[in-house]
Amino acid sequence: MTGIANRRSFDERLASEWERTKRQKAPFAVMMVDIDAFKRFNDTYGHQCGDDCLRKVALSLEQTAKQYGGTAARYGGEEFAVILPHTSPSEAAAAAEAVRANVERLAIPHDSSPAACVVTVSVGAAVAVPQPNEGAESLLSLANQALYRAKQNGRNRTEVACFVRE
């Protein structure tokens, strides 16, 4: 529906990129992105507008991810994920902020949002160098934790967890 990769494609790409960067001992970043107050958006504007919103946000995420050498996917519902291989902590922070700002710039009205009068996203990113005997799920879990911090700290913001020194 959104025109970007789905969760299954994301999981496959995540596993292959994780293994590749593990062999290269390179930094790897993952972002989890959630549309703020999306249930309220659907309740206010209807599911057709909700679907249109998802498509616009997905396109914005895909374009932004490509600018940073990454891949975006719909992870489920109003949640998206971005894979950024060979990405330093500062690059991941810049990419996360670009994702957030580009969605806000879409200026999709959202009168029932507690975060802003337009559709916004919260972004959690995590960066690490893949270690032997460690799966990509560990980095995904850290990105999810960062996403929840972004939500707890007011939404329409980014949080980054880094386990790489620059």
Q: Note the beta-strand portion.
A: 15-25%
Query: What is the helix/strand order?
Result: HEHHEEHEHE
Oligomer state equals single chain
Distance between the termini: 39 Å
| Low-pLDDT sequence parts | none
Strand order of the largest sheet: 2-3-1-4-5
Report on the biggest sheet: 5 strands, mixed
- Number of E-state strands: 5
How would you describe the shape? globular
Walk me through this protein's architecture.
The chain has helices at 7-24, 38-45, 47-67, 89-105, 136-152, and strands at 28-35, 71-76, 79-85, 121-128, 158-162. It is built from five helices and five strands; from the N terminus they run H-E-H-H-E-E-H-E-H-E. It is α+β, with helices and mostly antiparallel strands and 166 residues long. The longest helix is centred in the middle third of the chain and has 21 residues, at 47-67. The protein starts with 6 loop residues before the first helix and ends with a strand. It has a five-stranded mixed sheet with strand order 2-3-1-4-5, sandwiched between helices.
